[in-house]
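Weekend entry, working from home. Most of the wet-lab plans are on hold until the incubator is repaired, so I used the time to fold the two sequences that have been sitting in the queue since the last round of cloning. Logging both here for the record. First:
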Amino acid sequence: MFEDSLAKTKAEKESVKKELAAVKKKQQTEAISRAVQDSLNNIKAEQRKQAEIAAAVQKKHAEDSIANAKAEDKRIAQELAEKRKQMAQETAMRKKAFEDSVNNAKATREKAAKELLAEKKKHTEDSIATVKAAQQKLAQELAEQKKLADERDGIESILRAKAKLTKLVRDELLSDAEEYGDERRTRLVEREAAQAISETELLTSEPTTVVLSRLGWVRAAKGHDIDARSLSYKTGDEFQAAARGRNLQQAVFIDSTGRAYSLDAHQLPAARGYGEPLSGSVDPPDGATFAAVLIGEPDDAWLLASDAGYGFAVKLRELYARNKKGKSVLKVPENAHVLPAQAITQETAFAVFVNNDGEVLALPVSQIEEMSAGKGQNLFGIAGKKSADRDEYLVAMAVVAPGEVLTVYSGNSAPMKLKYEELKAFQDKKGQRRQRFSRAYKQVDRLEVAPA
């Protein structure tokens, strides 16, 4: 009985222990469950907090981006406004500058038009005065001719009637004897016939510089130290050529057709004004212009040439013309122009030629043929077709003697000076192309010669 109770008690103990273990296990499970649940809740809370923070950050970033965009838009708007303002100012300045240019150009045109009108008016008045003076002179000459004709008719009637002539001589002798008759007070001496004095014999020989303009106006300045290019010229006119000589010599002018005209240098207008047009003293062909002027002693040698490269040496006396229409001297090829003539002062001099491509030739003047008229020899070797088509032509010519210096002018480049001895390098050499003065002098404007 007791053993049964003990066994039952043990069994109950075991049962209680199991129940306690189950309860404890359940409590542990519930505690773990609550801990897990708390962890999940904490994680969710943390996630919500992180989400809120991320949302706040994104919101702040978006607001900053919007603020930056607005600030950038404002800055761009300000820059655009500033640029529009600057462009408006520049436009106004350009408009004002353009208006000023237009006004200046208009004022310049009006001034030039007034000057041209005044010039034409003065020229017209001078022409009218000249015509009136010529008419008065012609009227005086006609009246004098009529008087002389009447006197001639009276004398011829007396000469035709011997009785009248005898009576006239007798009456004059008797009248003179009655008025002056007394004993002779002078001796009868046979003397040489009186001769007329030349106008030049009354003048003093002085150095002079004859200046010719591109439009054919001529003037003579006293002395040889004249800078002809710095003289004043009429509007639209400029320097063409000049020659130094003496006022008692004859000046020779060559026109674009190759005709020569000669005038006494002392009869040329002074250099105080613009001079006078040559066409008033000579009679060139229609459309001809004047290209060269020469002056010196009759035996002086000169070089005549056209820009086609043909030319010759000539004595100055061969160019003197007796009438206003001149004489044909230089035959000018088709489409060619006459170059300003150059004086040949020494037989050892070089004739220097430059073409439109800057090529240079120094030719001894002793190799140039002397002629009185004609086309001349081909000095530079330019083909006729090239010259006629203006593909190749001479732009400048000069004669340089020992003791002289050649100055070369080319655009904005500084003038180049070459001594006589340095020109020997530019003589023709067989098998070699012609040289240029330098690369910077491909386009030569003009050549000038002066003492070293």
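Second, folded right after the first finished:
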Amino acid sequence: MSARRSARRRGRRALRIAENKLLAAHEAQWTAAFFDVAKSTPFRKVKVAFHRGFLEEATLPLEALDDLEPLFEAAPLLRRLRFDSPGFTGQTHAPPTLTGRLSSPLLRRVKSLDLRLPAGGDAVAVELARCPHLTGLHTLHLEATAWPIPDFPTPMFSGPPESHRLTVAGASALASSPHLKSLRDVKLASNALGGAGVKALLEGGWPLVSLDVSGNQLDDTALTAIAAAPHLSTLEHLGLGAGEYGDGALTALAASKTLTSLSSLDLTNSQLGPRGLERFLAALKLPALKALSLRGTGLGDAGVVTLAKSAASRQFTSLELGENTVTQTGVFALADSPNLGGLTRLQLNDAWLKKKAVVEYLAASPTLASCRIYVKGTLLSRAPKKKPAEKKKPAAKEKVAKPKKAR
């Protein structure tokens, strides 16, 4: 690390410490006016966050969206808003809706909008797409799907279950909106898009920096569409968790000629396996890719050994490998690999790592000497390096004066 980068990190850390001290002393005073108008409900608590010393972010009950003026009067620099619908109370209630709630021109100030509206379905996406006040929106996170709970006596939401899902229709509405052209960060995780929905979403042509469509019953259609999208050359983070992908789609993603800026890829809980990982690594031509999450992808020891032996692994600085049924065979392969010297972060959490000898072997790895290793979420402690004992110079022998011979 260069001296300049070290100086910048120290400067940022000093600023964070100073900010935390100021907030500890004055946050209650600075937020009093906001909490006077932003009321928590029995199911949703109001939360705030400061950025650069200003109250810029708030988490609010959905009802607060009905009247934004008092909120912005109390906090004029609000730019990041999250709205949560009420949680399940044990009784059936109507799905959350945005109808009539997006009419305020104050929404033009909002740069980031996070909506947790289970069962809102495609209707929520349609209302967002129609809103003329979201032209400055850069970040949109939307969760609007609820699945019926089998054998549960009381339905959570009224109406037909198929209307409680965000599907390809909602994705198409967002993509075709003339008011959402400024989007750079889109997260539609845990919905019901499917591969067709992801393909429809990409029709928006947004030059995204981050896209997360994990947990959407994804298939090869999603991967091949993303790999070929010409407008995703600026994409840095991609979330594709909980999908079922074939070898051909994984190869297409790894060899994509357009994802040249992709630095972080999340495949958590996808059906990958050792074979899928082997195909992905063999085809890997994503020059910026540094962080790879393979948690819960069915790798086992075979997949981890493949990762350790692959020369493609030399480009990674961060790996998440937990929940892959890794034994000491996989751990030893990681510790002995000559291809993982660039790692600065490694996440593991399999049961085998409870064995002291295995953990000690991992901690002693010279290849991973500069890597922060997390075992079950806890940073692995390492024995401090012993300083070599200083060699003391032998003391100079004192010269004994010879007695002079008497004449």
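Plan for Monday: verify the second prediction. Residues 142 and 188 are 5 Å apart (CA to CA).
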